[in-house]
Specification:
single chain; alpha/beta; UDP-N-acetylmuramoyl-L-alanine:D-glutamate ligase; 4-stranded mixed sheet; 4-stranded parallel sheet; 10 helices; 13 strands; 39% helix; 17% strand; globular
């Protein structure tokens, strides 16, 4: 989606910056920046904003050949506002975005044929939430095919209540995705809201019982719980400027390290480092710096 974020002026009269973001997109961009070979499967419009988004993603090293055109629709839009502690809130305009109709789009069959050969497929509960039921089933089928072809599936249980008609529907979709994933990246806060688990052990037990052996529970500033129960904390305590995209950045750092063959503990440290860099800058995908 297109992203509006404030420039941080202290008098409250600052301007708004136009960028882009979205949970799986944030992870994809960060992964591409590590040098991984990353393609993004989605749909955009044929408007100037869509063309600019696609060009900017390509400039980041993202393979955009699976970004399908939808002449009838445009990108979604969201705005970020942050409180004094850097905690963010979002306002969305995305009801008719092109991405919602991805699996009905021209060229989807060829795109899915390529996507099934991925070494790693990463998606989230938001990915499922924005799709109609037929699209959800198509995405779950893609995950199943990737696993059958020897690839891995990573799933982030990123719960946004406004995207779902009720919690029961969201829980059902989440559990179906967990059962197809071998790397799970839930957040304790989301799981507590969605299904009541109050601690990381309960969350991990639920996900692992459904078949997701490598479940890493994100605990915000406290760090994360690894599949063996070990807690890995960030190296430093930070005072964030903007927490947008923190979990997505952790996902990218963790997955990049695991793809390189690093152990979960090392991967978690890398995830924390990338998340820490992100929350000290504005926007879900801050520009590269020194």
């Amino acid at each position: 989606m297109l992203e509006l974020s404030q420039d941080g002026s202290s008098n409250g009269a600052g301007s708004w910056r136009l960028a882009y973001g979205g949970d799986t997109l944030n992870t994809a961009i960060h992964l591409a920046r590590t040098g991984a070979d990353v393609a993004y499967l989605t749909a955009l419009g044929t408007d100037p904003f869509s063309a600019d988004l696609k060009a900017r993603w390509a400039a980041e090293g993202l393979d955009t050949s699976l970004v399908l055109p939808d002449p009838a629709r445009n990108p979604g839009l969201y705005a970020i506002t942050c409180d004094d502690a850097g905690e963010r809130s979002f306002t969305y305009w995305r009801g008719e975005s092109a991405a919602r109709h991805l699996f009905d789009g021209k060229g989807i069959d060829a795109a899915l044929k390529r996507a099934r050969q991925a070494d790693l497929l990463a998606f989230s509960l938001v990915s499922l939430a924005i799709l109609p039921e037929s699209g959800r089933q198509a995405l779950l089928s893609l995950a199943r095919k990737v696993r059958e072809n020897g690839g891995q599936v990573a799933f982030d249980g990123n719960y946004r209540p406004r995207l779902w008609p009720d919690q029961s529907t969201a829980r059902s979709a989440r559990d179906a995705a967990i059962a197809l994933a071998n790397i799970g990246l839930p957040t304790l806060e989301d799981e507590t809201i969605l299904s009541g688990e109050s601690d990381a052990e309960s969350v991990a037990a639920h996900w692992q019982a459904l078949g997701c052996a490598e479940t890493v529970v994100k605990l915000g500033a406290e760090g994360c719980r690894l599949p063996d129960g070990q807690i890995i904390s960030p190296e430093r305590v930070l005072s964030p400027i903007d927490t947008s995209g923190a979990g997505d950045a952790f996902n990218a750092g963790y997955l990049a390290a695991r793809l390189r063959g690093e152990a979960p503990a090392q991967a978690a440290t890398g995830g924390h480092a990338l998340a820490g860099w992100t929350i000290m800058r504005r926007g879900a995908i801050p520009s590269r710096d020194s």
